[in-house]
Amino acid sequence: MDKIKAAVCHSFGDPLVIEEITIRPPEGSEVEVTLDAVAICHSDISYIDGAWGGSLPAVYGHEAAGRITRTGNYVKGLAVGDPVVVTLIRACQSCPSCAAGSPVTCTTSYDGDLGPIKTADGGKLHQAMATGGFAERVVVEQSQVVKLPDGMAMDVASLLACGVITGVGAAVNAANVRPGDVVVVIGAGGVGLNAIQGARIAGASRIIAVDMTEDKLIAAMEFGATDGVLATGDAPWKTAMKAAGRGADAVLVTVGAIPAYDTAPRYLAPGGKVIMVGMPHSGGMSTYEPVVLAALGQGMVGSKMGDVVIQRDIPWMIDLYQQGRLKLDELISGHWQLEQINEAIADTKTGAARRNVIVFNRS
C-alpha cells in the first residue's frame, strides 16, 4: 500500500481535510492513474453537503486526467505512460444495459467502501463515484478511462470526464437534436453551456438559454445560444416562444432547481420533450399537468451523463475541440492547488465559476 495525499470528507457540510491515505496497486483490469488535474463538479459539492447521503469518510472528485503509472495483469490496449481522462462511468460490459449500448446505466453494482483506498491507519475510506479523484492518484477500472492525444492539456482534458459529455451528450444523444430544431436550455452554468454547444453542433436553428442572471445569458451567447431569456421575468416561456416563433422541440433542464422542472414543459412544442439533466436534492418533488403532455404527444426523459459511450464520444469531442468547434479552455474559471480545495469549492458555490480545476504540481 502506497501513501498519497487526498482531500477527505469526514462529515457532511464540513470542510474537506487534506490528509495522508493509502492506496493499493491496481488488480486485474484496473489501472493506476497519477493525476495532473481534477475539476470540481456541482455533484461533488452536493455529495459533500449531504444532499444525497452516502458513506463516510469519503474521497470525492470524478472529473480527472493524468497518466497511467501502473496496470493490472488483464489490462489491454493501455500502457504505463499513457495520458488518459478518468470518468465515473464504470461499465461491466456484460449486463443488459452495457450489452444494449448504455454503459452509463450499468446495473453491476460497485461498493466504494471496498475500493482501493483506506485511511492512513487502514480503516474504511469510501471511493466516491468509483473514482475518488480529489487525490494524487486513483485506481479505477479500465472501462473508466479514455486515452488522450499526446500534448493535450490535462486541465482541459479533465472537463471531458463529466460536465462536457453530460451537456453535449444530453443534446446529441438524449434529445437527439436535429438540424432546424428549436432547443431551450434552462441553466447556463457549466453543463448548460455544453448543452448549448451540443445543440449548436447538432444544427439547431434556435438555441434559447434561460437563466437567472444577465451575465450567464451573455456567456450562453458566446457558446452558441441565439437568444437569452431571464427566468426572473413574467412567463419566460412566452418570451422564448416569441423569440423562436414556436415552442421547443427539446427543453434541456441542466440545473437541479425544482422551479425549473415545474415550468420546463411550458416551453414545449407539440411532440417535444423535456430532457432532465440537473439533479435536485433527494426528496425534491416537481409537479406538472400530465393531460397536456398526453394530449400534445410530449414527453419527459432523464439523461444520465449525456447517455454517452465514452470510448466513442470522448474521442469525437476531442476532435471537435482540436478543430475549434467545441470550446473547452473557455470553461475553466480558475486553477487551484489541492490544499486550496475548500476555497475552490466555496468559489464554485457562488455560481460565478464555470469550472474550477485542481492541478497537481509534479516538479
Which features characterize this protein?
single chain; 363 residues; alpha/beta; Quinone Oxidoreductase, Chain A, domain 1; 2 domains; 7-stranded mixed sheet; 6-stranded parallel sheet; 11 helices; 18 strands; 26% strand
Could you characterize the architecture of this molecule?
This protein has 363 residues and is an alpha/beta fold. The chain folds into two domains: 2-161 and 327-359, Alpha-Beta Complex (Quinone Oxidoreductase, Chain A, domain 1); 166-303, Rossmann fold (3-Layer(aba) Sandwich), CATH 3.40.50.720. 26% of the residues lie in helices and 26% in strands. The chain has helices at 42-48, 96-99, 154-158, 163-174, 190-202, 214-222, 236-244, 258-263, 290-296, 310-323, 341-349; strands at 2-8, 17-23, 30-39, 58-59, 63-71, 83-86, 117-119, 126-127, 137-141, 145-147, 182-186, 206-211, 227-230, 248-253, 268-276, 299-302, 332-336, 355-359. β14, α8 (258-263) and β15 (268-276) form a beta-alpha-beta unit. α4 packs parallel to α5 (190-202).
